[in-house]
Structure formats: structure tokens, C-alpha cells
Write a structure and sequence with these properties.
The complex is a heterodimer of chains A (761) and B (385).
Chain A lengths: L7 E11 L12 E2 L4 E2 L1 H6 L9 H9 L3 E3 L9 E3 L11 E4 L1 E4 L4 E4 L1 E8 L2 E3 L9 E4 L3 E2 L7 E5 L8 E4 L2 E6 L2 E6 L4 E2 L1 E4 L13 E9 L5 E3 L4 H11 L3 E14 L19 H11 L7 E13 L10 E4 L4 E4 L21 H6 L19 E2 L4 E6 L4 E5 L19 E7 L2 E4 L9 E2 L1 H4 L1 H6 L3 E5 L5 H6 L1 E6 L5 E4 L5 E3 L4 E6 L1 E4 L5 E3 L4 E10 L2 E2 L4 E8 L9 E2 L8 E3 L3 E7 L7 E9 L5 E8 L6 E7 L20 E6 L5 H13 L2 H19 L12 H6 L1 H7 L20 H15 L17
Parallel strand pairs in A: 37-47
Antiparallel strand pairs in A: 1-6, 1-9, 1-22, 2-3, 4-5, 6-13, 7-8, 9-10, 11-15, 13-14, 14-17, 15-16, 16-20, 18-19, 19-21, 21-22, 23-26, 23-35, 24-25, 24-33, 26-27, 27-31, 28-29, 28-30, 28-32, 32-35, 33-34, 36-38, 38-39, 38-45, 40-41, 40-44, 40-46, 42-45, 43-44, 46-47
Helix pairs in contact in A: 9-10, 9-13, 10-13, 12-13
Chain B lengths: L2 H8 L10 H7 L4 H9 L1 H9 L3 H12 L15 E2 L22 H10 L7 E3 L20 E6 L1 H9 L5 H9 L11 E11 L2 H7 L5 E9 L5 E19 L6 E7 L2 H4 L10 H17 L6 E7 L27 H6 L2 E3 L3 E2 L3 E4 L2 E4 L11 E2 L14
Parallel strand pairs in B: 2-5
Antiparallel strand pairs in B: 1-3, 3-4, 4-6, 5-6, 6-7, 7-8, 9-10, 9-13, 11-12
Helix pairs in contact in B: 3-4, 3-5, 4-5
Classes of the chains: A alpha+beta (761), B alpha+beta (385).
């Protein structure tokens, strides 16, 4: 029953994202992701004067300034941008913001705002309300965990593989609150790129995150005199819940906010300010972060058996394919608007004129660029057939208008069930048909009630709900459009804007890392309308992005390198059609769920790469689902991502031979730098503040810390595992450890041996 | 140094012998006999430490080391051997005590151009890294720099046992012979804001900090010296002092009171009340003398791992243990100083709770490592090549 059950504890606030952007490749494929190297071939192809011989003096000046690269028309034509992008000095930190500046009227704290113990009786007075919510990282020096955690993409070029590594989440402190150590890292779920009508690109996206914490000695709850915490603890000690669930949505992403969300200097207001600021920072050594900040709305509640830890489950509703909600007053609406049509809400121009007095105080207001249409995000529903209450998780559902957080008004929405294509509106406990009113999904209620709405139903509808598909239907006056293959919008034949996908296949093991020829297994939870689906089948199809540029992620051709092989289940070959291309054959695997609805997938790395495994569940007796040729429904697809790290175990032999033939510390260092450290020295300059990776003396002086942080036991979950980006292959790590061993012994003039434990290719 | 000379040195008046009467009266405020005894008599120091006089011992060491307390004459410690003159690049035996190699000619030449007094010592501030591998920046966008020095008895032990190179340390490890310095051994770790030739920085720090001539060698990215040096002045921000009146050594650390103003570090550990009382007493005495060392305060002392309740005892200097002050126990971290023939030096970084921190409280087992008697600076030794 997740956080949709009771009790619930609500929180709102802000989250900081401080990724290093040197490897983002949005403009140029600077970073060769498969090889975890600078992309020398790209530099050479486009006559960029950055070579293995001169990069230490040429790369940084190039990466911090505007560049134009004349890509051929087949690759989209010329592109201009700053290769290092908006946060070249980022350290990948992420944390819930607790920033105030009374002199500017700024109060951007992340706090508990309320809760619900009994249906329909919101708790507005409890000592837990007003307590901070904190995301902590693993200890660094000081033995106590402290913010930040880390934001790390499994595939740094993708938009669908973000992960939050963290040590723990705490609420409150001292005599009231709880401290919950990490069970496993969080994964971005259900990304919705049209979450905001006026914020562009990544600014307009939203993502849901979930973390669960098993009951036990590590989960410390100090109830104090909080009724909310007491109820939560009772849910656990009563034996029903197995721990605590924290689910939150991050949305409304604002860039260039130094001075408003932090006290960082300097304070660039737009990308045009960056080259000069970057140059000054490199000159002075005062490297600065320029993070992105998002709003946060979340709910804390009990975690029950059969529920995944990091993926929200329940009855799963998504926008019907290619279905959009239109703004008739957009500059280029979905189709011509009749004269005199009332505005949906305020105009983009009006919104952009509002420069302050938003939630938490002033900000650097972004430029408004009105979109003509948006899709609703994934929505989860639980039905309590004992209390006859439909609880709807709207955390990720409805778009906001602009940065103030005001929700777009799509009028009242009918909530009902689709049976054989016919929509039946449910009946509420008080008599009338069930609607989700604007007031219920509008900003105030959204923020106050953790994005959750409870709809009491009249009795006797359980079978209808059990047998049908839950759906949302818009008022006839709302413009609902269907997009054709050419991208053109047409009026939809119906007003269904969300509909249930009964079968789900989700995994906690997203963001898998594999080394050369390494194997692992992961599990998929298959559910039918929120309940385990024993005996169901899952068709798994593999997709892989083509190269270092973020391009179409197409199914892997059966004849091509497979990147990762599935070593169990029924292997088959199917034909799929990638977007805009001819049909291709691709390898697929069919696996059956066990009695608990769980599927185990065994995999083995075959080549470096970033495959995406998409899961297509189906029930016994149902036809095998049709797989897409391209992985492009990232917001609704059920999938996992894998990074197969660079194949360079051979480096180990090369290093051993180099040392044994020279016994020369300088040559040993040059090997380490030019094969491993140089990349991080260039792409992640924040290291200049800690351990300058191009400085042998400094790296040697930190060898104790380096060896501790590259250790394999820290790779899976530590927020401090080095490199932060987790692209250090086993081969490179082994070489670093060998070199570290020499440093620890002050370079004995003696030969070394390859480690016995080193697996060979 | 005998007491008569000590008084004169205290006043910065080695010559002439006729000291002004006012200055003599001020000098009487400092118990110079006690200062010398607690510094040079390890038995007396131990008795004082064990009977609650730790702060007195610490201040005595600081005063004794910084004599003459006024004037521009070099201080006692400035004649000690810097580690850079002991642990030589190819592991060769260092020149004997009293034959400290002079600064490179290029340093002197540059110093003369800058108008520095070349009759005063030039300190080789050969490091800008703390023991956690990180650096501390000052407000002038430079890293705080460090120098380790040792007294004659420390130096003598190192030379006599041949542990100025790793070959010697390895031989001791293979013979299972633990390192064991004499009770009179002293070692210093000092921290510095680099002034160089910048008159503006000098003007800001002059009168607040003890300032010396200094230099350091420039190296390329692969660690090779390029023959160039930075030469100028440097301001003393902190000073660790250790000696061995007790087997686990006695750990003392001082800082300049203006450090938070001129470096990006603040003190995370409180100064104990007894130490604050001692600070008030001695800083007033130094102030009455007009000594620059009135601007320095004792941060604390340490000679035990845990308190009576078994809680780890901490001691840190914000200039030297900036980022891990809350996990800084001098005595614990140095208790694990050890060398293993197979693994090299013991790793001080402790994996804990998904991150790294440092050992505090009772030290962990270091089986397989030959103890280095708390002296981590032995890690600077090189192999004979």
C-alpha cells in the first residue's frame, strides 16, 4: 500500500543538483563514454587542436568557451555552445536545501509540512511539522555523515538513468524525528519532459524518486510527542509494515540561481556569463558551483511486503500513446483557436514579468517559452476495498504553468474505469460522480498533501475497479490532441488523458555496472493491477545508444555486438522497426515469473556500452507484446540500464611490464596519468580543489585516501567512491592499486607482480 | 642552553650584556627556569603532565622553542633540521648535525634581488598537503604550506639507526626491531601563509604573525624539479610540537589567533578551559614583552587515547588538520605509524560507514607493521638508488 496508505507525513522544499557537466555531451561528444576517455577522434575529425600531446594546455581553454563545430547536415549541422556546459566545476553533490537569507527575504528550507493519520483529517499541528528533511552523504574526514549525496548517471549521456547515492535520510533530529540509513540508492523514475508549460529543456522535466528503509536496529525513530511518528512506528511495530518509504518528486528545475539558493560567488545569470567566470575561476583557483535547483514535494509512509524499494508501484496509469493536453492560447496552438477563446491561464508574457515574491523569495527568473501541449506523467493509484477509498499519487501527474508552481487548470477531471473501451465514471461516497477537481490537484493542495488525493467511493464498486482499467477523462471543453507520426496534432477521438497499464514489470536493480566479461543477476517484479503476477512472462529487448552522442537508442541488431548477453530464459529473435528506419532483427529473451511474481535475469557483459533492457510483460494466454524498435518512451517504459565499463584489463600487464623494465617512478606516474587520471583532470576540474590529478606530488600525498575510495567494496553504494562518475574499469582500478602499492612503499627499486586475484579476459 | 643565556635570549638581547631594567622586570614575569626544565628535562615534564600541568608544559615548550621571544634573531627551532635535509631523494646519509646544507644558490640570488636579509634562515616549505591529502587555501588564493623539523636527538637517532632511507626501515622491520626514539626527541610541524614578495600580503600580516624567509622548489606535473624556486616570506599560522616525556609522546599544538581571518579554516574543536586559562596567562606575559608570539594560542594537548569514560580524546589544528578536525586524535593517528615490508606504510584513512575518516581513541591492531614510534615523518624516507 506504499505511501498511499496511512499514516502519511508530507514534506516540501528544494533539492540541489550539482553535477559536473564536462561529460554531458549535449553539444559535442567531448567525452568518449564507452572508453571513458577524451574523444580524440572527435577532436581530430573537426580540426580541434586538442591532442594527447597538448591537452593539458589546450583542453580547458576550449571547454570553457563558446565553440562552434561544423557538423555535417546528416549530424544536424553546425552547433555552437560551451562544451563544459553550465556547471563545469560541479562536484555531483545533491541535497535537500536548507538555505535562508533574511536580508533578501529568502527562506528555502526543506521541511515537514503535515500529515494524515485518519482519512479526511489532515494533521496540521504536530511537533514534527517544521522539522528539516536532510539527505546525507557518506562521511569524509568527519566521522558523521553530512550532505551532500551524489547525483550520478549510469549513462552520462542519457536522460533516463540518474541515480541518487546517499548515506541516509534524516527527519528532524535529537528528541524527535528519524534517521534512516540507505538500503539501496535511488533511481529516477517516470521522467516527464512536459511537466512545465513555460520552462524549456531539462528545466521543464520532473522525476519521481523513492527510497525505503527496512525496520531494524539501524532505523532509528524518536517518536517524542509526535502523533505522526507514533502512527508510523505503530504501522511497523504492529507487524504490518516492513519499514519506512520516502517518495518524492523533483520538478520545476531552475538554473543559474547562485545568490538565491546559496551564497556562492560568482553568480552567472546565464550561459553568456560563464566563459569569463570559468576563466577567472581557473586563474584564481576559486572554483565555483553553479547548481540547478528543483522543487520537492514528498510523502513518507509505511513500506509493505511485496513492494519494491526504489520503484513506486501500484496501479499504473500513463498518458495514452501520443496523447497531449493542449493550450489553445499558445503562440502555435495544436490547431487554430477560435476567436475569443478564454485563456487557459495567464499568458507567458505575464508570467515572465513576475520577478519575485514566489515561494521562498526571489529567484533569477528564467525566460518563459510557452509550449503548445503537455502530457500527464505516470500516476499511481491504490484502492482500499475495505474503506472504499481511492488514493491517487499525483506527485508526477499535472504540469505547472511556470516557476511559481501554479498548476495548469484542466478543469474537473472524471475518474472512472474503462471496460471494453467504455468509460464508466465512479460514484463517490457522498453520491455524485467522482471528479478530481482543479482545487484537488492545484498547487496548494498538491504541496500541502504530498501530491496525494484520497477519493472516498460509494460501496459496491470494488468489482468494477478490480476488473476494469482505471482512467481519467477530461471535460469535453479541454483540448485533447493526438500526435501523428509527423508530429502534427489532431483532436483526439476521446477525452481519455490517463489510462491504466495493468501489467507492470519493474526492478530495483536499475543502474547496473559490469566489468569486462562480468556476470550478475537481477530481479524483475511483475504485477497485474498492483498485485504479484505469478506465471506471467516478460519479453526483454535490448537497446543501445550508438556512440558518445545522445542519439536514438535503437534495438541492438542480432548480428551486431550484443554489449550484454542474457544467459537464461528462452532466447528468440524478433523483428522491430527503429524510429525512421527499416525493420531489423534483434535478440530477445522470454522469462517467466515465479510464484511470487519475480523474474530472475542472468546477464554477462560482452562489450563496453550502455544497454537498456526494456521489459514487456504479458500474461499466460496473451500474445507476445510488440516491442518498439527504439527506446523512446523513457517516461513510461519499464526498463533497467547497464553500463559495461571499458575493456582494459590488459592495462595491468602493460603497467607491470613498464615498472619492471624501468623501475622509474616518473614513467610509472606518466602511465597512470595518461591512461587514467588525465580524463578526470580535464572533465572534472572540481578535483583541483581537493587533489589536483595532474600533480603527482598531490596525488601521492593522498594515496591513502585514493586507495580507500577506489576500493571495490565502495563501488556499489558509497557517495565517495572514486571517481564519482563510476567509470573506472576493473583494469584501470587494478593498475591504480598497483601504483598505489608502489607509492605506499616509496617506489622500491624492485619488480612487481600482477595481482593473483586479477581476473583475466 | 643554560639559564643565563636563556634569559638573554628571551629578551632578544644576546648582546650587549647590559639589559635595560624595564625589560628585565618584564622578563621576570615568565618563569624561565621552569620553561627550560619542562623542555629539557623529560622526567620533570612527565611529572607535570601526569599531575595536571599539561598546558604549562606545552607553553614552556613553545616559549623555549621561540626564544628569543622578541627581536629579529632566529628562534631556537629555526636551527633544527628540516626533514628535507634528512630524508634525501636517493636515500643517501644526510650531512651531520651542524652542517645543514645551505639553501640553493638560486634561492639566495633571488632573495637578494628581493632585498631579503640573507643572514637569516631560509625555510624550505616543501609541502602544501595535509595528512588527509587535501590542501588548505589562504585568503590570497594560495595553499597553506608546511615544514617538518627535528631536534638534534631526533636527528641523531635517525642517522644512528640508518632509517633516513627505506632500506634502513625495512631492515629494522625484517629484524622485528621497533623504532624507539629517546625521551629528549622533539619534532615540529609548522604551517605557513605564503607571502612571497607580495607587499600587500606582508602589510596585512606583519605585526600579527611571526614572519620568516622561505622558499620552495617548483616541480612539473610528474614531480620532477624544474630548477626554479619560489622565494619570499611566509607567516607562521600553526605549530605542532611533540616530544617524548611519555612513551606515547606528548602532543601540543599552537595557532595564530588571526588564522580564521586569513585562511579558509575555522576551529571545530573547543579549547579546554584549563588551556584557555594558560593562554590568558602566557599571552599576557608575551604581550607585555611586545612579543609577536602573544598572537599565538595553545589549542590543546594530548597524551592519552581516551578519557576516563573511554571516550576518544581529540586534538586538532585548523591549519594542519582542516577537514578532519572532528576525527583528529594526534596520538591515535601516530600510534599506527608502521612499516610493512610487503605493504609499505600503514594506511591512515579508515573506511567507515561508506566513507573515510581517521582513527581516534584506542588505536587499532597493526599486525604485520613494524612500529615507527609515532613518527610518521619517517614516511618521507626514500630508497637508496
Amino acid at each position: 500500500m506504499s505511501v498511499l496508505s496511512l499514516p502519511r507525513i508530507y514534506f516540501t522544499g528544494f533539492i540541489c543538483w550539482d553535477p559536473a557537466t564536462g561529460n554531458n555531451n549535449d553539444y559535442f561528444p567531448t567525452y568518449d563514454d564507452e572508453q571513458a576517455a577524451l574523444n580524440w577522434a572527435f577532436f581530430q575529425q573537426f580540426d580541434i587542436n586538442i591532442t594527447p600531446g597538448n591537452f593539458q594546455t589546450t583542453f580547458r581553454p576550449w571547454v570553457i568557451n563558446n565553440q562552434t563545430v561544423n557538423f555535417p547536415p546528416s549530424q544536424g549541422g553546425p552547433v555552437t555552445g560551451i562544451p563544459g556546459e553550465w556547471n563545469y566545476f560541479g562536484g555531483n553533490g545533491t541535497y535537500f536545501v536548507q538555505y535562508t537569507d533574511p536580508s533578501q527575504g529568502i527562506d528555502r528550507r526543506s521541511l515537514i509540512t503535515g500529515g494524515l493519520i485518519n482519512p479526511g483529517q489532515p494533521v496540521s499541528s504536530d511537533p514534527l511539522i517544521g522539522q528539516p528533511v536532510t539527505l546525507l552523504g557518506d562521511p569524509f574526514g568527519d566521522p558523521q555523515p553530512r550532505p551532500p549525496g551524489r547525483l550520478i548517471d549510469n549513462n552520462p549521456v542519457s536522460v533516463y538513468s540518474s541515480q541518487i547515492y546517499y548515506n541516509s535520510i534524516t527527519v528532524g533530529g535529537g528528541s524527535i524525528g528519524f534517521s534512516a540509513p540507505r538500503d539501496q540508492r535511488m533511481q529516477s523514475r517516470f521522467i516527464n519532459f512536459t511537466r512545465n508549460f513555460n520552462l524549456t529543456a531539462a528545466g521543464g522535466a520532473s522525476v519521481t524518486w523513492q527510497a525505503c528503509f527496512p525496520a531494524g536496529p539501524n532505523l532509528k525513530i524518536n517518536v517524542g510527542n509526535s502523533a505522526l511518528l507514533s502512527a508510523l512506528q505503530t504501522a511497523i511495530t504492529g507487524g504490518h509494515a516492513k519499514g519506512i518509504m520516502v517518495r518524492f518528486n523533483t520538478y520545476l528545475n531552475l538554473y543559474f540561481q547562485n545568490g538565491y539558493f546559496n551564497n556562492v560567488q560568482p553568480r552567472p545569470k546565464s550561459a553568456s556569463d560563464l566563459p569569463a567566470a570559468y576563466a577567472a575561476a581557473l586563474q584564481s583557483g576559486n572554483l565555483f558551483s553553479n547548481p540547478c535547483y528543483s522543487r520537492v514535494v514528498g510523502t513518507i509512509g509505511p513500506w509493505y511486503a511485496d513492494e519494491l524499494s526504489t520503484c513506486p508501484e501500484g496501479r499504473y496509469l500513463a498518458s495514452p500513446p501520443n496523447t497531449f493536453l493542449c493550450n489553445p492560447r499558445a503562440p502555435s496552438p495544436c490547431w487554430p483557436a477560435p476567436a475569443g477563446l478564454a485563456e487557459m491561464v495567464k499568458s507567458a508574457h505575464q508570467a515572465s514579468m513576475q520577478t519575485s515574491a514566489g515561494i521562498g523569495g526571489p529567484i533569477n527568473v528564467p525566460v518563459a517559452r510557452l509550449k503548445p501541449a503537455a502530457q500527464l506523467g505516470v500516476t499511481l493509484i491504490e484502492f482500499d476495498d475495505k474503506k472504499n477509498v481511492l488514493s491517487i499519487d499525483l506527485l508526477n501527474t499535472f504540469p505547472e504553468w511556470f516557476w511559481e508552481g501554479e498548476k495548469v487548470n484542466f478543469k474537473d477531471i472524471q475518474v472512472g474505469v474503462l471496460s471494453n473501451g467504455a468509460f464508466t465514471q465512479l460514484t463517490s461516497a457522498s453520491g455524485p460522480k467522482v471528479t478530481l477537481s482543479y482545487a484537488q490537484y492545484a498547487q496548494q493542495n498538491y504541496e500541502k498533501a504530498g501530491g496525494v488525493v484520497d477519493l472516498p467511493l460509494a460501496a459496491g464498486q470494488a468489482d468494477l475497479i478490480r476488473n476494469g482499467l482505471l482512467a481519467f477523462q477530461a471535460d469535453p471543453s479541454v483540448w485533447v490532441a493526438v500526435q501523428d507520426d509527423d508530429g502534427k496534432m489532431h483532436p483526439s477521438p476521446n477525452q481519455i488523458i490517463l489510462t491504466e497499464t495493468p501489467l507492470t514489470a519493474q526492478t530495483d536493480r536499475r543502474g547496473i555496472y559490469l566489468n569486462e566479461n562480468e556476470t550478475t543477476a537481477f530481479q524483475i517484479s511483475v504485477k497485474n493491477k498492483g498485485k504479484p503476477a505469478p506465471g506471467a512472462s516478460v519479453l526483454i529487448v535490448k537497446y543501445n545508444p550508438p556512440d558518445a552522442l545522445a542519439g536514438p537508442v535503437n534495438a541492438i541488431p542480432a548480428q551486431g555486438p550484443q554489449v550484454v548477453n542474457i544467459t537464461n530464459g528462452q532466447q528468440t529473435v524478433i523483428t522491430v522497426t527503429p524510429d525512421g528506419e527499416s525493420p531489423v532483427q534483434t535478440n530477445a529473451t522470454i522469462l517467466q515469473a515465479n510464484a511470487n511474481g519475480m523474474v530472475t535475469v542472468n546477464v554477462k557483459a560482452a562489450n563496453p556500452g550502455f544497454p537498456v533492457f526494456v521489459f514487456y510483460p504479458y500474461l499466460a494466454g496473451q500474445p507476445q507484446p510488440a516491442a518498439t524498435g527504439s527506446f523512446d518512451e523513457v517516461g513510461t517504459a519499464m526498463f533497467t540500464t547497464i553500463r559495461v565499463l571499458t575493456y582494459d584489463d590488459a592495462f595491468v600487464d602493460q603497467f607491470v611490464q613498464l615498472w619492471n623494465s624501468t623501475l622509474d617512478p616518473v614513467q610509472a606516474w606518466n602511465f597512470i596519468y595518461s591512461n587514467i587520471l588525465y580524463l578526470y583532470d580535464m572533465i572534472f576540474p572540481v578535483m583541483l580543489r581537493f587533489v589536483p590529478l595532474g600533480d603527482r606530488q598531490r596525488v601521492e600525498a593522498a594515496i591513502d585516501q585514493v586507495l580507500a575510495l577506489i576500493a571495490p567494496n565502495y563501488f556499489p553504494e558509497s557517495t565517495l567512491a572514486m571517481p564519482i562518475t563510476r567509470d573506472l574499469s576493473r583494469g584501470k582500478r587494478t593498475v591504480l592499486e598497483l601504483w598505489g602499492g608502489l607509492v605506499k612503499r616509496n617506489y622500491p627499486p624492485q619488480p612487481i607482480s600482477k595481482p593473483v586475484a586479477q581476473p583475466s579476459a | 642552553m643554560r639559564i643565563g643565556h636563556l634569559v638573554l635570549a628571551l629578551l632578544g638581547l644576546a648582546l650587549p650584556l647590559c639589559a635595560p631594567s624595564v625589560a628585565t622586570a618584564q622578563a621576570q614575569a615568565i618563569n624561565t627556569a621552569q620553561v627550560e626544565k619542562l623542555t629539557t628535562d623529560s622526567t620533570a615534564a612527565r611529572a607535570a603532565i601526569e599531575s595536571g600541568g599539561a598546558a604549562e608544559v606545552a607553553w614552556s615548550w613553545f616559549l623555549w622553542l621561540n626564544m628569543p621571544l622578541t627581536g629579529s634573531a632566529p628562534k631556537t627551532w629555526e636551527s633544527w633540521r628540516a626533514s628535507s635535509t634528512v630524508y634525501l631523494p636517493n636515500g643517501q646519509e644526510p650531512p651531520p648535525w651542524g652542517q645543514t646544507p645551505p639553501p640553493p644558490a638560486a634561492v639566495i640570488a633571488q632573495a637578494q634581488k628581493l632585498g631579503l636579509n640573507t643572514n637569516l634562515p631560509f625555510h624550505n616549505l616543501d609541502s602544501d598537503v595535509q595528512s588527509d591529502g587535501l590542501a588548505l587555501r589562504d585568503r590570497f588564493n594560495q595553499n597553506v604550506r608546511y615544514q617538518i623539523l627535528m631536534n638534534q636527538d631526533t636527528f641523531a637517532y635517525i642517522v644512528q639507526n640508518g632509517i633516513y632511507n627505506v632500506n634502513g626501515q625495512q631492515a629494522m622491520a625484517q629484524a622485528n626491531k621497533p623504532t624507539d626514539f629517546p625521551p629528549s626527541a622533539f619534532e615540529l610541524k609548522t604551517s605557513w601563509i605564503w607571502i612571497g614578495a607580495d607587499q600587500s600580503i606582508f602589510n596585512q600580516l606583519n605585526g600579527k604573525y611571526y614572519i620568516v624567509n622561505a622558499y620552495y622548489a617548483l616541480v612539473d606535473g610528474s614531480g620532477k624539479p624544474n630548477g626554479l624556486y619560489k622565494v619570499g616570506r611566509a607567516a607562521l599560522t600553526g605549530m605542532h610540537i611533540i616530544s617524548k616525556p611519555v612513551p606515547q609522546w606528548f602532543w601540543v599544538t599552537f595557532q595564530n589567533v588571526y588564522d580564521a581571518q586569513y585562511t579558509e579554516a575555522t576551529n571545530k574543536l573547543p579549547i579546554p578551559p584549563a588551556v584557555m586559562q594558560a593562554n590568558q596567562k602566557y599571552r599576557n606575559q608575551l604581550k607585555s614583552l611586545g612579543s609577536i608570539f602573544a598572537n599565538y594560542q595553545l589549542m590543546g594537548t594530548q597524551w592519552q587515547f581516551v578519557d576516563g569514560a573511554g571516550k576518544p580524546l581529540l586534538l586538532a589544528n585548523s591549519q594542519i588538520e582542516t577537514a578532519f578536525q572532528q576525527a583528529s586524535s594526534c596520538v591515535t593517528c601516530h600510534a599506527i605509524a608502521g612499516y610493512s615490508v610487503t605493504n609499505g606504510y600503514f594506511n591512515i584513512a579508515k573506511q567507515q560507514n561508506g566513507g573515510i575518516t581517521y582513527y581516534t581513541g584506542n588505536p587499532p591492531q597493526t599486525n604485520g607493521y613494524n612500529p615507527l614510534d609515532f613518527v610518521w615523518s619517517l614516511k618521507r624516507a626514500q630508497w637508496q638508488r
